[in-house]
Amino acid sequence: MSVESAAPSRPAPKPSLHKPGSQSALRQLNEQRIVQALATGGPQTQAELARQTGLSTATVSNIVRGMSDSGTVTTSPTTSSGRRALSVALNDNGLVAVGIDIGRRHVRVVLAGPDYRVLCEEAIPLTAGHTAEEGLDAAAELLERLLTESGTPRSALLGAGIGIPGPIDRRTGTVVQGAILPEWVGINILETFSERLRIPVFIDNDANLGALAQVTWGPHSSVENLIFVKIGSGIGAGLILNGALYYGNVGITGELGHTTIDEHGLICRCGNRGCLETVASTATMISLLERTSHRPLTAPDIVQLALGGDTATLRVLDDAGLAIGRAIAHVANLINPELIVLGGSLTGLGDILLDPVRRGLLRHAVPVVGESTTVSMGSLGDRAEALGGVAVVLSQPSLSSS
Amino acid sequence: MSVESAAPSRPAPKPSLHKPGSQSALRQLNEQRIVQALATGGPQTQAELARQTGLSTATVSNIVRGMSDSGTVTTSPTTSSGRRALSVALNDNGLVAVGIDIGRRHVRVVLAGPDYRVLCEEAIPLTAGHTAEEGLDAAAELLERLLTESGTPRSALLGAGIGIPGPIDRRTGTVVQGAILPEWVGINILETFSERLRIPVFIDNDANLGALAQVTWGPHSSVENLIFVKIGSGIGAGLILNGALYYGNVGITGELGHTTIDEHGLICRCGNRGCLETVASTATMISLLERTSHRPLTAPDIVQLALGGDTATLRVLDDAGLAIGRAIAHVANLINPELIVLGGSLTGLGDILLDPVRRGLLRHAVPVVGESTTVSMGSLGDRAEALGGVAVVLSQPSLSSS
């Protein structure tokens, strides 16, 4: 694996000098530099901070005063080379990691501390077919609002881990064709988000973040090989192999939704035919059921109808589950994970969906593999991807030395 | 990953005390202990060797004299705690690793030095349907013959890496159902081989060893993510992920041959229906072609017929290649490797097989994945698996410290 694809890329945050309010943007950037220097190097004097960040001692002194007032850092008198000096230490409980999940119809933002305690979170709806710009605007505004509501200063932000529902080519940092968000294809999201949010940004596929959440926040921290399958408008998987997220060659892994199920089936948005998504995504279920329901349906409606015993919905779910089981049987045959966790908007279905998935797995896997693979429903619900974004930020090497 | 499944298991060699010639077997075992102690701990005195192996100083002195005569070790005078002593050092060029590949119709043995130079190798035919005992006998006899012919003393043997054409449950060390060698199912091969060969033994699936050979002996040493697909009587894959062999949960990975291609196809030996092996293994090709050829065919015959332009053979290969391409498209979608290498008995076909495989890959993979995945024919031919066996022995941590 190349260095570029080994972990979410981390660009230096860029000042947005061409935008209004660039003075305050510059100050925020300088605060951020000082936070990063303290997170990486531990407590140090103002003079040391000035040397490390390249800022003047006057600027450092000015910023440290503000950060001390807001509780981000604590200062204490010390001596350096025989002179009086001020030692600056980061307040761990003042640091905050951001997780952002951008879906086809929603954006969710989570703020959490280095102890993985969630400070606040909120999800807001987006219109389907939103542009990248609109999605980004919504995420940035929601983040600002949560910062204000929770009284979190911008200087406390360690960075944001952002999940996108589409394959990301890690060579270029762009969303490639086959994404649930066709409007985002070709945009360099890493650059776009970094410039807009003005904090270090880590972009990843949403299913990868969901997988990371299972072994970080979920009950599966001891599992070495785990596949997280997100079932929604699209179907994608995140792979934890040998205890770490696996990225492969160019970063496009877990494209489970494009397993051929029916060689002569419907055309898929990826350009092939009869992919798993054309028979088992929530979009497919909805279009099958709307033919007889004569009213617009959503994923929560499917859960509602199934729990109420609607036969057509149960049949559609059974067929979808069998197809998903067949696709994950191929994954199990190849990868032999301990555990496959299902996530996405249908987790509330429980055994209604799990049963046909398990039947499909046992029907299509090599017997000893099928029998030794556990399939369960994710317990983090819609929050998995944003929580995974927080986990990406908190797992950065610079933090473990703070 | 559990410690047991992290690397090929390495049992202590057991003396075969119940067999004729146990006196010489015991001496060989003691020699082996001394070689292992020197490989692990570096040069040391005879007294230190005695302490480390638990052997008497008289036994150590006796064995060291013989090993010095045969060129396995070099001795030199030294002092230890003020007394004269004899320092014993392993001669690197005297050490030999063994690679053994056991197939349905053949066994191959390779001897090579720590510099990966092949000293000698030979393959002999086996009757199809041989018992585990017969296969093991043939391997042991061929090994003895090669040792005699090359003048290699048993004490120079570091161990043997052995490839088996079937899934191995690493929890128990047994071949599980679905193996090409049904007669071997349920046998604890690690124990059986260790007792019989009386050297440290490492058992692995043959496709895993083939994959290891590609990055060790082949031209692909810089590839981090490589899939080796062995096409023969069965179809299996070995996975190099992030630069190392990947074993998953219980060790049964790469079961590509059991990808469902035709939901209502022929019954497969694994118990499922329409698996890739039922449409693309050499056994299937042979049974299709024998209907009209009216004579018994072998895999080399298929290569011969295709190179001669036989239309039926070319059609059978085209259909098989497309199906293999479809299965590896699912692998590429999931794992996103740089390179997929085809091995097995059909490598002589070159583009005749590669072309339909590539067409199948592009037809069924997510476009950007299909386009960024290279498929090539292995250059090590029938030797890949046995060479991989040598690589397993030479990659043991004890050797790197010698």
Secondary structure layout:
The structure is a homodimer of 402-residue chains.
Chain A: H1 3-6, H2 22-41, E1 44-45, H3 46-53, H4 57-69, E2 73-80, E3 83-90, E4 96-102, E5 106-112, E6 118-125, H5 132-150, E7 157-164, E8 168-169, E9 174-175, H6 189-197, E10 201-205, H7 206-216, E11 226-231, E12 235-241, E13 244-245, H8 276-280, H9 282-293, H10 299-307, H11 311-335, E14 339-344, H12 351-364, H13 367-371, E15 374-377, H14 384-394, H15 397-400
User: Which chain pair has the greatest contact?
Assistant: A-B, 50 and 50 residues
Order of helices and strands of chain A: HHEHHEEEEEHEEEHEHEEEHHHHEHHEHH
* Known CATH architecture of the largest domain in chain A: 2-Layer Sandwich
Instruction: List the total number of helices of chain A.
Output: 15
Question: What do we call the CATH topology of the largest domain in chain A?
Answer: Nucleotidyltransferase, domain 5
Region (Disordered) (chains A, B): 1-24
Pfam families (chains A, B): DUF7343, ROK
InterPro entries (chains A, B): ATPase_NBD, Cro/C1-type_HTH, DUF7343, ROK, ROK_cs, WH-like_DNA-bd_sf, WH_DNA-bd_sf
Family (chains A, B): Belongs to the ROK (NagC/XylR) family.
Concise summary:
The first copy, chain A, is 42% helix and 20% strand. With 402 residues, the first copy, chain A, is of the alpha/beta class. Chain A has three domains: 3-93, Winged helix-like DNA-binding domain superfamily/Winged helix DNA-binding domain (Arc Repressor Mutant, subunit A, Orthogonal Bundle); 94-211 and 385-400, 2-Layer Sandwich (Nucleotidyltransferase, domain 5), CATH 3.30.420.40; 222-379, 2-Layer Sandwich (Nucleotidyltransferase, domain 5).
